[in-house]
Specification:
single chain; 412 residues; alpha+beta; two-stranded antiparallel sheet; 12 helices; rod-shaped; disordered N terminus; disordered C terminus
């Protein structure tokens, strides 16, 4: 999930400016409306002076109301609404008193109504006017606060998702580093300094690539393959000819975006459970296709099958469960496939597919489908098909077994 920043409507970008604009527009409209009504009813023009003073009075009272309401709005509901009602009643009383006094001065002896009668008769207009103003004030402020709280929650959710993605991704490095450093330690103990130095050099190159990408970021499949090759260079020093790989990647797939460090744990899982426990090793095949608006990636190996693989325990058959008890079988650490599942769920929600298949005669397949997102350099992709027991720019080894026609797994 990307972060969503709260961007209020342009009018409310500055709440202070919006308040004064509404004040001037509202009270200006009130004065204009009452002036038009007075002129339409053939009232003397000097009545406009009375209306102007009344308008200014209302404008000043609402400024005081805004200060009081600002202090009440964050209190307990009973304090807010009770205090607002009392303050509004006082404001209406003050406004009606001033208007009744002005009307008495203007009309003079032309009317026999008393001050109290005029004040009661004129109280309905300020009651409706100031009551409507108060309702609008609270409504606008509550609306803006709800928007700000929604934005805050959205940003917190995005930060939590990013933290979860970072945690899931950073689980991979210690898991991989343990095996690599253990191999380097063994080479040092055997006084094989040149292979140990070469492995350290490759390890530093691999870590440099993994640390460049931000947690939760996406990279093109071509870049992901480049990082994966650095990892395979390290593993080939451990397993030599026992590790055989075949990549079959479409040009369009090479330019597609996917979460960084998504493939390395899949290949590491295949090495751990297919290459490592078998004397003859295994072949790992990686396929990338664009199917409609989806990117489909499959990682297959010729190992013994699902058995005790990470993330597959819930789907084990009786035969697989029996295999899991074989002495010497690799023990799951709960990092690899479960990690990938969690990262895909965090990044794509329900809009992704993650399947694992184990063939009866051996072999294990992981299928991933995610929405196809082309990168900016999707048209400039490197060659996409190679078989190797070495980096992709070298000649293929003699012991590589070519990949058979792709098997379609899952939805198309």
């Amino acid at each position: 999930m990307s972060m969503v920043n709260f961007r209020p409507a342009p009018f409310f970008a500055s709440k202070n400016r919006a308040f004064w604009n509404l004040q001037l527009a509202g009270w200006g409209g009130y004065f204009l409306l009452r002036s038009v009504v007075a002129v339409a009813n053939d009232q003397p023009l000097d009545l406009l002076a009375v209306l102007l003073v009344t308008t200014i009075t209302g404008f000043a009272i609402t400024l005081i109301l805004s200060v009081v309401y600002r202090q009440l709005i964050d209190r307990q509901p009973i304090v807010t609404w009770g205090g607002a009602a009392v303050v509004l009643a006082l404001a209406v009383l003050v406004h009606a008193t001033i208007e009744a006094w002005l009307q008495g001065i203007y009309q003079g002896s032309l009317t026999e109504t008393s001050f109290a009668q005029r004040m009661i008769g004129l109280s309905f207009i300020p009651l409706a006017l100031l009551g409507g103003w108060s309702a609008l004030y609270f409504a606008i402020n509550y609306f803006l606060r709800v928007e700000e709280q929604t934005d805050r929650l959205t940003r917190l959710e995005a930060q939590a998702t990013a933290a979860q993605l970072a945690m899931l991704r950073y689980q991979l490095n210690p898991h991989f580093l343990f095996n690599t450093l253990n191999s380097i330690s063994t080479l040092v103990l055997l006084k094989q300094t040149e292979p140990a130095n070469a492995m350290l050099t490759r390890l530093s190159g691999f870590l440099r690539h993994t640390l460049i990408a931000e947690p939760g970021s996406k990279v093109a499949l071509a870049q992901e393959i480049e990082t994966l090759q650095l990892y395979l260079d390290i593993e080939r020093m451990r397993f030599e000819e026992r590790l055989r790989t075949h990549f079959d990647l479409e040009d369009a797939a090479m330019g597609a975006l996917l979460p960084a460090m998504l493939l390395q744990p899949l290949v590491e899982n295949a090495i751990k459970y297919a290459v490592s426990p078998q004397e003859e090793g295994a072949r790992i095949s990686l396929t990338g296709r664009v199917v409609g608006q989806r990117l489909r990636i499959t990682v297959e190996d010729t190992g013994p099958g699902a058995s005790s693989r990470e993330g597959h325990g819930a789907q084990l058959s009786t035969q697989d469960q029996a295999f899991a008890t074989i002495p010497g079988a690799p023990v799951s650490t709960g990092v690899g496939l479960v990690n990938i599942q969690n990262r895909l769920a965090q990044g794509y929600g329900d809009n992704h597919l993650f399947e694992t298949r184990s063939q009866p005669g051996g072999g294990f397949t992981v299928l991933i489908e995610i929405p196809y997102e082309p990168s900016a350099s999707a048209t400039d992709t490197p060659p996409h098909t190679f078989d190797s027991a070495s980096p992709p720019d070298t000649e293929a080894a003699d012991n590589v077994i070519n990949l058979n026609s792709q098997r379609v797994i899952g939805k198309s």
